[in-house]
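Appendix B. Chain record.
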Amino acid sequence: MNLHGLQFLNSSGINTLSKFILRVRSHNMSHMVIRGTSEFPWQAKSLPGLKRLMPELEVLIE
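Structure tokens predicted for this chain:
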């Protein structure tokens, strides 16, 4: 999932993204990658925390 161009995500959006990751996990998906950018500070701060929901999640902040 490429989030490079996503400048802002409010709490409802983060909640929806979290629910999506939990659903992916429940389907026993073995690998998922989320790509973000350090250009938008919220991505570097919030996206790595999603690994708590799915330890197999790979978060790449470029």
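Further analysis of this model is presented in Appendix C.
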